[in-house]
């Protein structure tokens, strides 16, 4: 099963919304520019030029740059991220793993590749998360609600009786993944060898998980 990209899901969400074609074009341009230049360095003139509309048209539909960003983040939070989570869960639960290492290898490499494929959109989201605690809290709650009940049982079944695994057991993995992913999110021109990174993460966490 091929999980849709965030860009595809966002385009579908916008197409199904009540937004006009010009409004959708403005939001898509906003996404590209905010990812490449950052929110502060992007002007409404930049957005209008990339969207192929006049700056007056931008202001006709949106009062200011902040309103454009809010209009972009709303479908990401309300429909796109949940859809991404649900597709990933549906893909994962159909897998049959012979060991904890095999399961973690799939999960780590799959999510790292997903982040690389969607790094520009994720960069915009992370930029906003840094200044918007509510957005971070809602994204975290959504992830826990969708991921944990479906994925955690697949992992804890490999527990040793003397060392039961819990959600806390896997937290170091997330931190290690971030150390590899953050540089390529912040600087999209950088490259990451996902297989090598996955090997290195597993080498660090598996001794403790299998103890």
Order of helices and strands: HHHHHHHHHH
Name of the level-1 CATH class: Mainly Alpha
Which structural class is indicated by helix and strand composition? mainly alpha
CATH structural fold name: Tetracycline Repressor, domain 2
Please state the CA-atom Rg, rounded to the nearest Å. Answer: 19 Å
What fraction, in percent, of the residue positions are helical?
over 70%
Main sheet characteristics: none
* CATH homologous superfamily label: Tetracycline Repressor, domain 2
Range of strand content:
under 5%
CATH architecture: Orthogonal Bundle
Overall geometric form: elongated
Describe it:
Residues 20-80 form the HTH tetR-type domain. Residues 43-62 bind DNA. The chain has 211 residues and is mostly helical. The chain has one domain: Tetracycline Repressor, domain 2. It is built from ten helices and no strands. The protein has helices at residues 6-15, 21-37, 44-51, 55-61, 65-93, 100-117, 119-129, 133-156, 171-186, 194-209. The longest helix is centred in the middle third of the chain and has 29 residues, at 65-93.
């Amino acid at each position: 099963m091929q999980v849709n990209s965030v860009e595809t899901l966002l385009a579908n969400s916008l197409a199904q919304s009540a937004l006009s074609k010009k409004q959708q074009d403005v939001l898509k341009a906003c996404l590209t520019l905010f990812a490449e230049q950052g929110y502060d360095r992007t002007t409404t003139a930049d957005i209008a030029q990339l969207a192929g509309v006049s700056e007056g048209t931008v202001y006709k539909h949106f009062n200011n740059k902040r309103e454009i960003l809010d209009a972009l983040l709303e479908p990401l939070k309300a429909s796109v991220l949940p859809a991404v989570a649900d597709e990933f869960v549906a893909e994962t639960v159909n897998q049959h793993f012979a060991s904890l290492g095999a399961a973690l290898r799939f999960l780590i490499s799959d999510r790292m590749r997903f982040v690389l494929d969607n790094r520009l959109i994720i960069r915009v989201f992370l930029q906003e998360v840094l200044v918007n605690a509510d957005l971070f809290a809602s994204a975290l709650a959504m992830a826990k609600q969708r991921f944990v009940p479906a994925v955690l049982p697949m992992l804890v079944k490999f527990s040793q009786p003397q060392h039961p695994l819990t959600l806390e057991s896997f937290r170091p993995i997330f931190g290690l993944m971030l150390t590899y992913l953050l540089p390529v999110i912040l600087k999209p021109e950088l490259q990451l060898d996902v297989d090598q990174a996955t090997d290195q993460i597993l080498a660090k966490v598996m001794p403790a998980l299998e103890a």
